[in-house]
Design a protein that fits this description.
single chain, 464 residues, alpha/beta, Rossmann fold, Serine Threonine Protein Phosphatase 5, Tetratricopeptide repeat, DNA Cyclobutane Dipyrimidine Photolyase, subunit A, domain 3, 3 domains, 20 helices, 5 strands, 49% helix, DNA-binding
DNA sequence: GCCGACTTTTT
DNA sequence: AAAAGTCGG
């Protein structure tokens, strides 16, 4: 009798799961294991919204395994200790896991290899399943270990054929003698956003099918429309791996109208950021490119940061997006760009501050996508144009022309009709008194001057 | 080392 | 029209 352990990480699904399929094919018994990692719980990466979504995912994964005669084994603690103990208890020969890209995942893999080897067991690391094309699968012809610019990457990536998505195994036999453990209830998590989406592979597939039917074709035309909310909303499922990006690429390439190409391009952006992080794991905290910034600090910066977090900057479209984040644990992509630009360029606050706040709230909060997109906006990342600044008023007028999005999230401005809602400071004093809404905490020109001046001084210092 | 090209804009 | 440098072939 042979037994394998499958360690689930960011791949909480049964379909298109190479480690699970390999383990089922290799032996008589499989222990599907998820470890609630004590190190992650103690880190700044824990967040109630993701914890709640995760519990949905685990419950659904367990249900799917039970439909196949198996069950999920859940434990808490140090992931290496737990895997080692479970493997010993089940007398497993091998442990299967999908490769991860973050520094943490890479270190975890190294520790697992060592620990298991000491016991005479083997860790089988499968290609990353968090992306459609594995990090490192395509590299520039010059010999670098990763692409630093999106477009050449997209060209090479597009020529790759993502692996054919695997079917879910028909049956999974779990050995007796390994207790299942308890999947904690979602309802017990405190501080969860009211409008949080539900997790799990079933929920993900339902969302995918309805979106393919009614959203994908118009994606290219409407994905930037803030009130239209026409993005896929699949990001939390991609983060937790309840949907397979390889499957999504196959599906979108079957051409569901003009939106397919634009959507595939967005999927490539995920892969792009993951291959950058896999090669430069330190980019989760350090500037990918040093721009000699000296970000604002001290009490005045702290006050601005607080206003930004609460959605009280006085710039309606910024505040609306920040309130959406607090309310849903999610933010429209266009909103993410504009609030990030506002924090880093207009308020000239360190991108890490914003990235951390996003990680505390986003249900899809993902180290690769979040940190590297923040760096992109801040100008310290892979953008070769580090001075790009988004003007919140123009962004509001362009992507929320009638102010519908702003009024949806800012009840205090709900009575202010039309596009005037983007510039409440232009109202006459009498009218303005009717709205309990802050004056802008910074002038756009003032913010821009501060950013450019600081960058210039930093560059001169850097040349010395 | 040349040179074409570069998600997301602003004026 | 000018981004503002820098990547990648």
């Amino acid at each position: 009798m042979t037994v394998s352990v499958v360690l689930f990480t960011s791949d909480l699904r049964l379909r298109d799961h190479p480690p699970l399929s390999a383990a089922v094919a290799a032996g008589d018994y499989v222990v599907p294991l998820f470890v609630r990692d004590a190190a992650i719980a103690a880190s700044g990466f824990a967040a109630p919204n993701r914890e709640a979504f995760l519990r949905d995912c685990l419950a659904d994964l367990d249900a799917g395994l039970r439909e196949r005669g198996g069950r999920l084994v859940v434990r808490s603690g140090d992931v290496v200790d737990v895997v080692r103990g479970i493997a010993a208890r089940a007398r497993a020969e091998e442990v299967h896991v999908a490769a991860g890209v973050s520094g943490y995942a890479q270190a975890r893999e190294r520790r697992l290899v060592r620990a298991l080897e000491a016991d005479g067991r083997r860790l089988r690391v499968h290609d990353a399943v968090i992306t459609a094309v594995a990090p490192g699968a395509v590299t520039p012809s010059g010999g670098s270990d990763h692409f630093a610019v999106f477009t050449p990457y997209f060209t090479r990536w597009s020529a790759e054929r993502p692996r054919r998505p695997l079917r879910a195994p028909r049956a999974v036999r779990v050995p007796e003698g390994v207790p299942s453990g308890r999947i904690p209830r979602r309802e017990a998590v405190r501080g969860v956003a009211e409008g949080l989406a539900g997790g799990g592979e079933k929920a993900g597939r339902a969302l995918l099918l309805s979106w393919r039917r009614s959203g994908l074709a118009d994606y290219a035309a409407h994905h930037d429309d803030l009130p239209g909310d026409a993005t896929s909303r699949l990001s939390p499922h991609l983060h937790f791996g309840t949907l397979s990006p390889a499957e999504l690429v196959h599906l979108a390439r079957e051409k569901y109208g003009p939106g397919s190409d634009a959507f595939v391009r967005q999927l490539c952006w995920r892969d792009f950021h993951h291959q950058v992080l896999a090669a430069r794991p330190e980019a989760s905290a350090a500037d990918y490119r040093e721009r000699h910034d000296h970000w604002r600090e001290g009490t005045s910066a702290a006050r601005d940061i607080q206003a930004w977090k609460e959605g009280r900057t006085g710039y309606p479209v910024v505040d609306a997006a920040m309130r959406q984040l607090l309310h849903e644990g999610w933010m429209h992509n266009r909103g993410r760009l504009l609030v990030a630009s506002f924090l880093t360029k207009t308020l000239y606050v360190d991108w890490r501050v914003g990235a951390q706040h996003f990680l505390e709230h986003l249900v899809d909060g993902d180290i690769a996508n979040n940190q590297l997109n923040w760096q992109w906006v801040a100008g310290t990342g892979t953008d070769t144009r580090p001075n790009r600044v988004l003007n919140p008023v123009l962004q509001g007028r362009r992507y929320d022309p009638d102010g519908v999005y702003v009024r949806r999230w800012l009840p205090e401005l709900a009575g202010l009709a039309g596009r005037r809602v983007h510039e409440p400071w232009k109202l006459g004093a009498a009218e303005r008194a009717g709205y309990d809404y802050p004056e802008p905490i910074v002038g756009l020109g003032e913010g821009l001057a501060r950013f450019k001046g600081a960058r210039e001084r930093g560059r001169e210092r850097g040349r010395d």
